[in-house]
Specification:
nine-stranded mixed sheet; 98 strands; five-stranded mixed sheet
């Protein structure tokens, strides 16, 4: 017992010694403090950096561990070192010998948000490098890459990077840190030069004539060029950087040149003369029996018509601008030339009595021609046809086409050109090549001339080699007339034009003409300097002063977008925020409008009126109120000066009463107000707001649907209204600032509203049909299984719907919804079905469909419908179908067709055009399938032309075919309006037409819907232009038709 007690005492003493740190082993917590470190609970360490802390308390020894590879921790005695490794987070756990722990939360990074010093967008030229940009913040570990290294490459060195332009285009450079934060830089690589053309902003060309060859540069290739109205003017692009503009019919069009980045240049085109109807024919002309004279007709409004009072004595014909008068028998007759507006000219022609008009040319008796030049002259009188010869063909070249004489200077020396008519009458022209010009061409006009509207400036020309000619690049702005050595320049409307003076050997002087009535009104808008709008609430403001065309841009399209209309712009809120709109004119003047886009009810009351309105007595100025809480009311402080609409839901009108000042106050339903200062100017003073109309920019109306009434405001009264196509669209002249538009016949055109100082606003009008519903399908239709045939619906009241009575036999597209014109029928399996087409008022057309069990390959003919001239021979290639083929012609008096049987697919037949008119050629295969094409023959012209001049081709036909150039003077150059879908080349007088850069003629037409809807069976036109060595042009129009074989795609290999 005593022994056990001693053992107990010994154990107790040892335990007490251990508790006091005595004895061997661990010393225990001698400090009496809990385990701690000098690090904060949460710290940030940069990658690669280390931070040191002290450990205390607890029971030594200490250890530290990390929860991830983002950071490491080491302990030496009481020293703790934490090192950042990679971007990210980690938990550092510090433990003492007794197992007590403390933790430290570590973020490896910079402690600030990731950023780059690069702007949001960078624009560079090819080969150019940007400044060096820096990364910062984030994890401190960065990467950067380009979405398109072929356009823009990016080079990184640690926390620095720069961007280099490789080729034109767009790319996105993305910078990221290891924590996933990112920044995007939008990169545009261009030429460093704004897109430009050598064409002036306005070009005037005659009908059937072409402009000079213009060049495109700057911007970013590839370029594209389009005409807004190919019935008025077409464009041809060659060598990707050259283009010409060709006049087709009188009117106006806009040519738009774009580069691959969307930059654009607009060229306004006027086709036809703006002068009165005129002709080079004298008032009295004498001919012999069988003799002919050719004269020019111009001015007025095309198309021209000619008639003879006695076709037994004198016959007359018009081809384009050429008037041909031919003596038939002895006698007297009157020739009347009229334009499409009824203006007319009359000439007296005597045949077979008296002395006929002597043979003459417009060339002088003695002329000097510079080496390498080819001046042209006119031949008249005598008895056509005419011939021309050179006494020394090695020095002087000569050719004659109709009434046009061309003399070419080949090398220095002299000789004689002899012009003769069919009776042997001759005129001699002494020609010196490269010598005899001692005084260069000059004029008394300065290089730049400014004249007022309806004002004339007179000058003289000298030197060079007479006679002289005078032309204006834009007769709508300035006209020029000359006689001998005197010429006059007259201003028509404000604008710019070039007057060119040329001598007989081609030397020229260009005079820049500016037509102005004094200082221009500064650029302005009706928008106040600061506007507030709501989300999805577009607001429109007018643009005035300055010099059109205008451009508008938004500094932040994620907050508000802006679109440009006719002398107006519309701002639409996208999301809450701020930014600015910049309005610029063509001379660089600008107006800045700051915007705030708010959401919800906090949008304050605002109006589209400027803070101050200046107008005239009797003028109406209309604006829109929005924001606040409607409805709205308005009042005028002085109704003897101005009145205003009382209560309204949106629009209000201020009417000028008499000279003076007033304040118009617009109020909303909760008392919000906007004040507008109104000044009614005395006659001849003030700056009225821009001319505008309540009519939309584009209008679709039906024939006979009744007159539509609209108002005119702004500008300077009185106003006039005119129709560009009075045969289809009629208008009334304004009464109390209102006018009407009516549709009288199917067609399209524009209505122009003009104020007293020449400002204009245009409304595009399309007049629809009022005929009964019909389709181009036969009443009974047979197709093979798997075969699709395309048709169109028209007449009635669109849009249309279509249905099949048995979709297991035949399907139709569109299978649901409505369509505008084109539809298809597809054979599914053998059997019968009825297809019904209905219009929107219930009228219907039924088609009985039989599906043959035999799969039939459709017949194709290249080219399809074609137009040529009498005397032409057109060749056609048959493909598809089932050989052999039978070829029949329903009008042999117009054209003969041979052979009548074609044995194989790929075989050909020819059509020889005999007389003016049309014929339908039917190609029938062994399965009874029929393909019909229409061949049209026009009267042959002595002018240069392309045969065929009009043709059609299916989009899935990728074969190369040829066209023939008739007339003109070789060598020729050829252009196409679309290099994507066509490629043209010329050898001699034969044009080869191949597929373009896309490798096919596929068009896949779609409408403007979002998303776009495939327009089955629609067409696309390409204009091919030939230019001869004398500047004469001719065109051929190729229509590509969609093959309509698939509802989801065009089944054309793309």
């Amino acid at each position: 017992m005593t022994k056990l007690f001693r053992v107990f005492i010994a154990i107790t003493v040892l335990a007490l010694l251990a508790a006091c740190g005595g004895g061997g082993g661990s010393a225990g917590n001698t400090s009496g403090k809990a385990l701690f470190t000098t690090a904060a609970q949460k710290i940030v360490v940069a990658p690669g950096a280390s931070q040191s802390y002290e450990i205390g308390g607890g029971v030594p020894n200490y250890i530290a561990t990390s929860s991830s590879g983002a950071a490491t921790a080491t302990v030496s005695g009481k020293n703790l070192v934490i090192t950042g490794v990679n971007g990210g987070t980690a938990t550092i756990t510090v433990s003492d010998a007794s197992g007590t722990k403390v933790t430290i939360d570590v973020t490896v990074g910079t402690g600030v948000d990731f950023f780059v010093t690069a702007p949001d967008s960078v624009t560079l030229t090819v080969g150019q490098s940007s400044s060096v940009f820096q990364f910062g913040g984030g994890s401190g570990i960065y990467r950067v890459n380009s979405s398109n290294p072929q356009v823009a490459s990016v080079n990184q060195n640690g926390s620095n990077f720069f961007i280099t332009g490789i080729s034109a285009g767009k790319a996105t450079v993305t910078a990221t840190d290891s924590l996933g934060a990112s920044k995007i830089v939008n990169v545009v690589i261009g030429t460093g030069i704004d897109l430009f053309t050598t064409a002036p902003s306005s070009v005037v060309v005659a009908i059937g004539a072409s402009s000079s060859v213009f060049n495109i540069g700057g911007g970013s290739q590839v370029y594209s060029i389009t005409s807004s109205n190919q019935n008025v003017a077409t464009v041809g692009l060659a060598n990707r950087t050259e283009f010409i503009i060709t006049g087709k019919n009188g009117g106006t069009a806009t040519v738009l040149v774009k580069d691959s980045l969307g930059a654009s240049v607009t060229i306004n085109v006027v086709v036809g003369s703006q002068t009165s109807l005129f002709s080079t024919a004298p008032a009295n002309t004498k001919l012999e029996v069988g003799g002919s004279n050719i004269f020019k007709v111009g001015g007025g409004t095309t198309i021209y018509n000619v008639s003879s009072s006695n076709n037994g004595v004198v016959s007359a014909s018009m081809t384009g601008n050429d008037l041909t008068i031919t003596g038939v028998s002895v006698g007297v007759a009157q020739i009347v030339v009229a334009d499409s507006n009824g203006a007319s000219l009359q000439f007296n022609v005597t045949v077979g009595s008296g002395v006929p008009t002597a043979l003459f040319t417009t060339a002088g008796t003695d002329i000097v021609v510079a080496t390498g030049t080819t001046p042209t002259f006119t031949v008249g009188g005598g008895k056509a046809p005419y011939t021309a010869t050179s006494s020394n063909a090695t020095l002087i070249g000569v050719s004659i086409s109709g009434a046009t004489l061309t003399i070419s200077g080949l090398s220095e020396g002299s000789g004689r050109v002899t012009v003769a008519d069919v009776d042997g009458t001759k005129v001699n022209i002494n020609v010196a090549v490269g010598t005899g010009v001692s005084i260069p061409l000059f004029t008394t006009a300065p290089p730049a001339v400014t004249v007022g509207v309806a004002k004339t400036a007179n000058y003289t020309v000298g030197g060079g080699t007479g006679p002289y000619t005078f032309t204006s690049s834009n007769v709508a702005v300035a006209t020029v007339s000359g006689s001998g050595k005197a010429f006059s320049v007259t201003g028509v409307i404000e604008g710019d034009a070039n007057v060119v003076v040329r001598d007989a050997v081609g030397a020229s002087i260009t005079i820049a003409v500016s037509v102005s009535n004094g200082p221009k009104t500064p650029l302005f808008t009706t928008a106040p300097p600061n506007i507030t709008i709501g989300v999805a609430s577009p607001v429109t403001y007018a643009i005035g002063g300055g010099k059109a065309p205008f451009t508008v841009t938004s500094s932040n399209t994620t907050v508000a977008t802006v679109s440009l209309g006719t002398n107006a712009f519309t701002v639409t809120g996208v999301s809450a925020g701020t930014g600015s709109i910049v309005v610029r004119d063509v001379e660089g003047s600008l107006v800045t409008v700051n915007f705030t886009v708010a959401t919800g009810p906090q949008v304050p009351l605002f109006t589209t009126a400027p803070p101050s309105v200046v107008t005239t007595a009797g003028a109406l100025s209309s604006f829109v109120a929005s924001g606040g809480s409607g409805p709205y009311s308005a009042s005028s402080s002085n109704t003897s000066v101005a009145t205003v609409t009382g209560s309204f839901s949106s629009g209000f009108t201020i009417t000028g009463v008499g000279p003076g000042n007033a304040t118009v106050v617009v109020r909303d339903a909760v008392g919000g107000t906007v004040s507008i200062g109104v000044t009614i100017a005395s006659a001849g003073t003030g700056t009225p707001i821009a001319l505008f109309t309540s009519a939309p920019a584009s209008l679709n109306i039906a024939v006979g649907s009744g007159a539509l009434t609209y108002t005119i405001s702004g500008g300077t009264a009185p106003y006039t209204v005119s129709s560009g196509n009075p045969a289809a669209i009629t208008t009334s002249q304004p009464t109390a600032s209102t006018f009407t538009i009516s549709g009288t016949a199917v067609g399209n055109g524009s209505v122009t509203i003009r104020d007293a100082v020449g400002a204009t606003v245009s409304v595009s009008v399309i007049v629809g049909t009022n005929v009964q519903l019909f389709t181009t399908s036969p009443a009974s239709l047979t197709v093979g299984t798997g075969v699709t045939q395309s048709f169109t619906a028209s007449g009635g009241t669109g849009p249309y719907t279509i249905s099949s009575s048995n979709t297991s036999v035949a399907t139709v597209t569109p299978s649901s919804g409505t369509f505008a014109s084109a539809f298809t029928v597809t054979g599914v399996s053998a059997g019968s079905a009825q297809v019904v087409v209905r219009d929107s008022v219930g009228a219907s057309v039924a088609i009985s469909v039989t599906i043959s069990p035999i799969s039939i390959t459709p017949i194709d003919v290249l080219p399809g419908d074609s137009t040529g001239s009498v005397g032409d021979n057109l060749r056609f290639v048959i493909s598809g179908g089932s050989a052999p083929f039978t070829v029949t012609n329903n009008n042999p008096s117009i054209a003969t067709v041979s052979p009548s049987s074609v044995a194989t697919s790929g075989g050909t037949f020819d059509a020889s055009l005999l007389n003016a008119g049309s014929t339908v050629v039917s190609i029938t295969d062994s399965q009874g399938q029929v393909k019909k094409i229409t061949i049209t023959a026009n009267v042959a012209s002595s002018s240069m032309r392309i045969s065929p001049s009009v043709l059609e081709i299916g989009e899935d036909n990728s074969s190369t075919f040829t066209l023939a150039i008739k007339g003109g003077t070789a060598p020729y150059r050829v252009f196409t309006s679309d290099l994507v879908k066509s490629n043209v080349s010329v050898a001699g007088s034969i044009i080869s037409v191949a597929v373009g850069t896309q490798g096919s003629r596929c068009i896949h037409p779609v409408d403007l819907s979002v998303p776009p809807i495939y327009q089955r069976g629609s067409t696309y036109t390409v204009t091919i232009t030939a230019l001869d060595s004398l500047g004469t042009t001719a065109t051929s129009v190729m229509t590509i038709r969609d093959n309509s074989r698939d509802a989801g795609a065009d089944n054309c290999g793309n």
